[in-house]
């Protein structure tokens, strides 16, 4: 496997899944590239995050516990999905692997979704409310900011932890930090009724 991670600031071709891969491996590969949301040659991580957000909304609307369970499952299987996709591509941590962005985006929404659930306001979390757009923009924007800039401890995880777990860890940390800041900002200014 190549240890050279492609330059994310350049246009990069997504390495294809080997034609000899099993059906199971092909399914893992498609999850790894976010069901195609990680295919764009530029800004694959941002497009992958958009894909994760699109998937997150129906999960939230299905209910708090559905969102929590799917996020936990995504987190648990994430190291395997990212590691196996990386092996299939032959590149360690290729930018087109975006399952980690999906889970990071879900984690950035989780604290706010929890508070909305606790206050009985999750049923109002639809595009017709200002809170919806504030949460979406803040969660998405902060997650992408932390994922791109990688302040400590995210940078440490990115440099020192490898394999599928390493691919996941920096995005998980970025999602947690973005989620904590989002919930603090949103509920510092939003009235709780």
Structural features:
globular; 193 residues; 7 helices
Overview in brief:
The protein has helices at 23-32, 44-61, 64-89, 99-118, 130-149, 154-160, 163-189. It contains 7 helices and no strands. 66% of the residues lie in helices and 0% in strands.
Report what the structure shows.
By secondary structure, this protein is mainly alpha-helical. The chain has one domain (23-189). The protein has seven helices and no strands. The chain has helices at residues 23-32, 44-61, 64-89, 99-118, 130-149, 154-160, 163-189.
Please write out the topology.
Elements: H1 23-32, H2 44-61, H3 64-89, H4 99-118, H5 130-149, H6 154-160, H7 163-189
Helix pairs in contact: 1-3, 2-3, 2-4, 3-4, 3-7, 4-5, 4-7, 5-7, 6-7
Domain YutG/PgpA: 32-185
Catalytic activity: a 1,2-diacyl-sn-glycero-3-phospho-(1'-sn-glycero-3'-phosphate) + H2O = a 1,2-diacyl-sn-glycero-3-phospho-(1'-sn-glycerol) + phosphate
Main location: membrane
- Tally of alpha and pi helices: 7
Question: Helix and strand succession?
Answer: HHHHHHH
Number of domains: 1
Helix vs. strand class: mainly alpha
Mean pLDDT: 92
Strand content: under 5%
CA-based shape: globular
Helix fraction, binned, reads: 55-70%
Distance between the termini: 55 Å
Contiguous low-pLDDT stretches (5 residues minimum) are: none
Work out the radius of gyration. 17 Å
Largest sheet: none
Task: Compute the number of strand runs.
Answer: 0
């Amino acid at each position: 496997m190549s240890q050279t991670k492609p330059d994310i600031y350049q246009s990069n071709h997504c390495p294809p899944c080997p034609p000899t891969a099993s059906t199971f491996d092909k399914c893992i590969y498609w999850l790894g590239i976010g069901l195609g949301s990680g295919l764009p040659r530029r800004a694959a991580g941002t497009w992958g995050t958009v894909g994760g957000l699109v998937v997150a909304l129906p999960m939230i609307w299905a209910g708090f516990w559905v969102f929590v369970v799917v996020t936990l499952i995504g987190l648990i299987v994430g190291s395997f999905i990212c590691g196996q996709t990386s092996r299939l591509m032959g590149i360690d941590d290729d930018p087109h692997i975006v399952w980690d962005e999906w889970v990071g985006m879900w984690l950035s929404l989780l604290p706010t979704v929890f508070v909305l659930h606790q206050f009985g306001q999750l049923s109002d979390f639809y595009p017709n409310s200002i809170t919806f757009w504030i949460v979406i923009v803040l969660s998405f924007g902060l997650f992408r900011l932390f994922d791109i800039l990688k302040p400590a401890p995210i940078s440490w995880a990115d440099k020192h932890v490898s394999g599928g777990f390493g691919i996941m860890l920096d995005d998980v940390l970025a999602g947690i930090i973005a989620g904590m800041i989002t919930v603090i900002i949103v509920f510092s200014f939003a009235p709780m009724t």
